[in-house]
Amino acid sequence: MNVLTTINDALARRTTRFAFELLPPLKGDGTKGVFAAVDNVAEFDPAYINVTFHRESLKQTISSDGRSEWHTVRRRPGTVGISAAIQNRYRIDAVPHLICGGLSRYDIEDALIDMDFLGLHNVLALRGDASQNERMFMPHPQGHSHAVELVRQIAAMNRGEFVDGEVDVCHHSRFSIGVAGYPETHADALSPEDDIVRLKEKVDAGADYIVTQMFFDNARFFDYVRRCREAGIEVPIIPGLKPLVSPRHLKTLPAVFSTFIPDELRRAVEQCGDDAAKVREVGIEWSTMQARELKQAGVPVIHFYTMSKTENIARIAKNVF
């Protein structure tokens, strides 16, 4: 079963399920930590599990003669491999992320072929962030500048069209394609209206569903869905939630993701001081409230951002699902 089928089945049954996102292990780590994160929530029957993709970063070393040298490294490789391991172990659909940043069209095609061979029939197509040494996003010389181009490549491969052209006798991939949406507008968008236009381009290119960036005010999600529908975007829109776990989130999340923290939530976190355990409880309560309202509104799936820490997601799942 692919993600679109799961979403449509939930809509038909008028039920709500949950999904969550994991990081691939750091280079040198094994599967233990990832499997433990899944084990925490497996009893609550997650609909699918996303696995993030991390582009290259820079590492500085000092040579024996004192010279500074920079090396390109990947700290979290293995997105495709760990996705296959999760799917094979738990029989839960895995959704590897795939990004434009740092990859050529040939690199992307190779990754998609590997996914298909491994029985991974879902992908979340993203542009990705700028590299550590870039002031703004710079595409690979043989790659894509925008997520819509990545969606087009995946959709073309589903039709048997490859980078170098069509293959006469072809096993067709059947990827379900997800893309990102931004209820509070992507940082690079010219305007909220332009952001919706770009989203519709991704849907028209072949995206099957949308998963949103995190938000803490459900009213902003419902308004976003309304604006998308008015623009002719009819595919399912999956809300993304993140339970707060640290006092630092009051500053870092708005700064990094341009997300709005409601005053009530901000005050509740501030009253916890530096007590992370109390903030964690506030985060669970707030996300539970959000999830219950979203479930009541009939969303088919709620997606949770976890940073591979799922104990709080298990608490929320027990409360809501």
Could you characterize what this model shows?
With 321 residues, this protein is α/β, with parallel strands linked by helices. Helix content is 41%, strand content 19%. It has 11 helices and 12 strands. It has helices at 3-13, 32-39, 79-90, 105-117, 147-158, 192-205, 218-230, 249-257, 263-270, 276-296, 311-320, and strands at residues 17-22, 48-51, 57-62, 68-73, 93-99, 122-126, 161-162, 165-166, 176-181, 209-214, 237-241, 301-305. The strands form 3 sheets. It has an 8-stranded parallel β-barrel, surrounded by 5 helices.
Summarize the structure.
This protein is α/β, with parallel strands linked by helices and 321 residues long.
The amount of beta strand, in percent, is 15-25%
The chain-level mean pLDDT equals: 93
What gross morphology would you assign?
globular
**In angstroms, what is the radius of gyration?**
20 Å
Uncertain spans, ≥5 residues at pLDDT below 50?
none
Number of strands: 12
The ordered string of helix (H) and strand (E) elements is: HEHEEEHEHEHEEEHEHEHHHEH
Largest sheet features: 8 strands, parallel, barrel
Main β-sheet, spatial strand arrangement: 1-2-5-6-9-10-11-12
* Structural classification: alpha/beta
DSSP helix fraction: 40-55%
**N-C termini distance:** 21 Å
Number of helices: 11
